[in-house]
Amino acid sequence: MKIILASGSPRRYDLLKQMGWDVEVRSLPFSEVExxxxxxxxxxxxxxxxxxxxxxxxxxxxxxxxxxxxxxxRDADLVCAYNALGKGKAAAxxxxxxxxxxxxxTIVVLGNIILGKPTDPDNAKDMLRQLSxxxxxxxxxxxxxxxxxxxGMSAPASRWTRPAHTAFRAKAPRWWHGSKAVTIM
Length: 185
What we know:
By secondary structure, the chain is α/β, with parallel strands linked by helices. Helices cover 34% and strands 29% of the residues. Helix 2 (36-51) crosses helix 4.
């Protein structure tokens, strides 16, 4: 069966292929939020737009049901759910068939700070140093849609990571940034 993956993630693509799916990647531009404040501001603006009589301000990605769904989430869960749903809705909006669309978003939370996506190899090294020896949380939310209609959503699931290492020592760990390996020194 064919599915559309609304993500450029090679890991997600490989996972779905290994499961036997015929995968088409359709990663479309969607303005992801990176902080709780940004996500909250977006929800407030969406609510204002839906309450407004001016239909020119309606968001083409989200509908009122989405707003109700997103309103149940708080903090980092809201960021994760908003981004997953937005990416999925953006891809579903241009899908003219009943082919299912799958989207997900994963974030890393250290204390109260959501770590964004690394901007370059040096930023990736800095992030890994911050995480080294510290308990952190990895959250993933996923959605499935058909034609713009939401058919399923997994609430952001958390996994607490307790690193076995206390600092980067011995062998220099490697981490992939895009398609390039980054060695942490």
